[in-house]
Design a protein that fits this description.
Blueprint lengths: L4 H4 L12 H11 L4 H5 L5 E4 L14 E16 L9 E9 L4 E7 L4 H6 L5 E11 L2 E5 L2 E4 L8 H6 L1 E4 L8 H11 L12 H6 L5 H9 L4 H32 L12 H8 L6 H14 L6 E6 L5 H14 L3 E5 L3 H15 L16 E5 L5 H12 L3 E6 L13 E7 L6 H8 L7 E6 L5 H7 L4 E5 L9 E7 L4 H16 L3 E5 L20 H6 L6 H10 L7 E4 L5 H12 L5 E4 L12 E6 L7 H8 L9 E7 L6 H11 L3 H11 L2 H5 L19 H17 L7 H10 L2 H9 L1
Length: 740
């Protein structure tokens, strides 16, 4: 991260390698470590105390482990084999112990001589190898080992209490070899430039960087480790937040056309025809958005809202304000089904205000056009013409909107729905459609914990809609254990019939389509998860389930299917029939996950619910309970009660709070998955910072970074911080932040 000449030195050089060429090669290929600086920032995963041995009792099977233990006994056996028919084969069996358990080590053939001399009873050593089972006993075959000998000047007490760093290692490079390599380059740590401004470091009582590097690799006490980790966490949080703060600052320097709505124009006419009043949350967020739109630099705002909190209404009012001010607005949806749905709901909400230039259109009306990849040539030509002539003030579409042919008269606002499904490059391409950068509003119904919002979307200002509009109904969620209690599943279908009998509709969601070209149906292409292996059956498919339901438990009801491989016109027709109440039950894939709005649908049955992520289940569930009648969501699974998958489903059933669920989701996944592209590249910037646990550090680092960048945007007075930034922002990540 902090690369100065000494730390930039490659580990492997043609003439003079810092380490042996073989070691340097393995480090580069298997651990992504290329320079002295990279190696110094490869921190120990944990520490062992010589006096306190590891637990042999809970060793994981088939994993590469490093243990510290004492030799209990060692026996050399001779045996006859094909290679040594005269009984001259040799096998050394060594039993090691740590007080919690025993483990057998075995060495064969010529490999027995060295350990036979060195591994005498009472000897302590570090052992590394892959855990296997032989004769129902755990063993390590031919483990690598390192004897632990105290230096003569060390007292026995100091030796026993010393902390041994255990590094993230590979089968080709044991932890202690990495440790030795680190010791070789550790003197260079003195030359590490400190990226933290002295006032910040001293004000927070953090140790200098060279000291932190020494303490993390060669700690004398547990307090040393705590000091080092506290300091290195700050580095990671602060440098990342400075990068984001500079991004935000650069955005404030871009020119944009201020868009202020006319006092009695389209927006006023729209508000007057709304049959309800906006929630407090909608009013507050609308004010934040309108304040941004009125400035001379582009808005960059993330609008988070629970499923059904009325984000689309907030976005539509912003689009109408821009049209009032003489500009155009574009709304981007991730799928055609969602684009069509948005177009339908926007034109319904606007009524005659969406009929600009048509008979019956209102005085302030504009035209709202739909643009998707599957439109017919004539309709597409007309939509493109309406955009370039400014006949259409609002366009709703998929990524077809960002093709070269699409030209706007004056693009003032871009609304991106479900940002996590939409690539940075695509957002960037659409931005380039304006004469000046358009304002940008990003919406997501996937609640993002505050720390992730500050880390991943740190270049966007955040608004949160956490109030549900009046008239929204509660959703009851239950786990249906189909394998343990088959009668629960039978009862689920009875509940669906009851809902339909009461004049309502239902969704049944499956993980797979089930036609011939469905990848999961092809055993060669299907990626099997451990759960799949346990069940030995492919995930349930829409086409199969729909057929079984229509002939079985839901016989006599109107059952239709919807999935992503249907022709767009067919998809639209199915959705229209369902929205109109002509279909009782819609059996679908996750194509209905976002944006589909049918207030009369009250029940949802999710088959193989364990195949979906927590956030996805929450999104799906948000499709019911959108009207005045209460919603019901049944999560069907065959996973056993004790499994992690069942616990995940229990979490979803226990709360409707999306932010709480996103936190659970995040705790169950690795940090890297969460940070996604923002942390892509071989050298992830997060080694000691944990996004969920270190919320306080991230929030404080964000404040400090904003102050520093406001005072010195180019960081001219902080050259070491600039160097650290350059190391963090390799080309790929720089582009990611640029495109924001």
């Amino acid at each position: 991260m902090d690369l100065v000449p000494a730390l930039e030195e490659p580990l492997k050089q043609p003439l003079k390698s810092v380490l042996g060429p073989a070691t340097a090669k393995v480090m580069a290929e298997h651990l992504g470590l290329h320079t002295v600086g990279d190696l110094l920032h490869h921190y120990p995963r944990r520490y062992e105390e010589r006096g306190q041995l590891t637990h042999l009792a809970d060793l994981p099977m088939d994993e590469h482990v490093t243990v510290v233990a004492q030799v209990a006994d060692a026996r050399l056996h001779t045996f006859a084999s094909a290679k040594a028919p005269r009984g001259k084969g040799q096998r050394l069996e060594v039993t090691i112990t740590d007080g919690s358990g025993r483990l057998q080590l075995v060495f064969f053939g010529a490999g027995v001589h060295k350990p036979h001399k060195e591994l005498l009873p009472g000897t302590r050593a570090m052992f590394a190898g892959k855990v296997s089972v032989f004769n129902r006993r755990l063993q390590l075959a031919h483990p690598a080992y390192e004897l632990l000998r105290g230096d003569s000047e060390e007292t026995a007490e100091t030796w026993a209490g010393a902390l041994i760093p255990i590094y993230p290692a590979t089968a080709k490079l044991e932890s202690w070899k990495i440790g030795k390599a680190v010791q070789t380059v550790l003197p260079s740590a003195q030359e590490a430039l400190d990226p933290l401004p002295p006032s910040l470091r001293e004000g927070r009582g953090l140790v200098p960087l060279p000291e932190a590097l020494l303490k993390i690799h060669r700690p004398h006490t547990k307090a040393d480790i705590a000091d080092a980790r506290a300091r290195l966490k700050w580095d990671e949080a602060f440098v990342l937040q400075v990068a984001l703060a500079r991004r935000r600052y650069a955005d404030t320097q871009l020119p944009a056309v201020p868009r202020t709505p006319k006092p009695s124009g389209l927006l006023t006419a729209f508000d007057d025809r709304l049959p309800f009043t906006l929630t407090e949350g909608q009013q507050k967020v609308s004010k934040e958005v309108f304040d941004d739109l009125a400035t001379e630099h582009p808005m960059h705002r993330l609008l988070q809202g629970e499923v059904g909190s009325g984000k689309t209404l907030v976005a539509l009012r912003a689009m109408l304000a821009v049209v009032d001010a003489g500009g155009q607005a574009a709304m981007l949806a991730p799928t055609e089904v969602l684009a069509q749905q948005h177009h339908r709901s926007v034109t319904e909400m606007m009524g005659e205000l969406a009929e600009g230039g048509m008979l019956g259109g209102a005085e302030h009306a504009t035209k709202v056009v739909l643009l998707t990849g599957s439109m017919g040539a004539a309709a597409r030509r007309q939509a493109l013409l309406d955009l370039v002539t400014a006949e259409a003030g609002i366009v709703i579409g998929t990524h077809a909107l960002i093709e070269d042919k699409v030209q706007f008269h004056d693009l003032g606002l871009v609304v991106v729905d479900e940002q996590h499904r939409f690539g940075v490059e695509q957002r960037d391409a659409l931005r380039g459609k304006g004469r000046q950068p358009p304002h940008l509003l990003v919406m997501t119904a996937t609640p993002i914990p505050r720390t992730v919002a500050m880390t991943v979307f740190g270049d966007l200002e955040t608004s949160v809609l956490d109030q549900l509009p009046a008239g929204r109904s509660p959703i009851a969620s239950h786990v249906v254990p189909a394998a343990d209690k088959p009668h629960f599943l039978a009862r689920a279908w009875e509940r669906v019939r009851e809902e339909v009998g009461n004049g309502h509709q239902a969704y049944v969601v499956c993980p797979r389509i089930g036609d011939d070209i469905d990848e999961a149906a092809d055993p060669k292409k299907a990626k099997k998860s451990p759960e799949d292996e346990a069940e030995k059956r492919p995930p349930l498919a829409v086409l199969d389930v729909a057929d079984q339901l229509a002939k079985g438990p839901l016989q006599g009801l109107g059952v239709e299917v919807l999935h992503g491989r249907m022709h767009p016109d067919d998809k639209d027709a199915v959705m229209r029939r369902f929205a109109a109440g002509e279909t009782d039950v819609l059996v679908a894939t996750t194509v209905i996950e976002v944006g589909v709005n049918v207030p009369n649908a009250t029940a949802m049955v999710i088959m193989d619910a364990d195949r979906f992520g927590v956030s996805q289940l929450h999104q799906l569930r948000g499709r019911v309970g959108r009207g005045s009648a209460p919603g019901l969501c049944l999560l069907v699974t065959e996973m056993p009660e004790a499994s992690a998958a069942r616990q995940r489903l229990n979490s979803v059933a226990s709360t409707l709070d999306g932010f709480e669920l996103s936190r659970i989701d995040l705790e169950q996944r690795r940090e890297g998955d969460v940070l996604g592209q923002a942390q892509s590249g071989a050298r992830s910037s997060l080694r000691v910072l944990a996004v969920i646990e270190d919320e306080e550090v991230i929030a404080e680092a964000r404040e400090e970074a904003a102050q520093i960048v406001a005072a010195d945007p180019e960081l001219t007075g902080l050259p070491a911080l600039r160097t650290a930034l350059d190391a963090l922002l390799d080309e790929e990540r720089e582009q990611y932040l640029d495109k924001g």
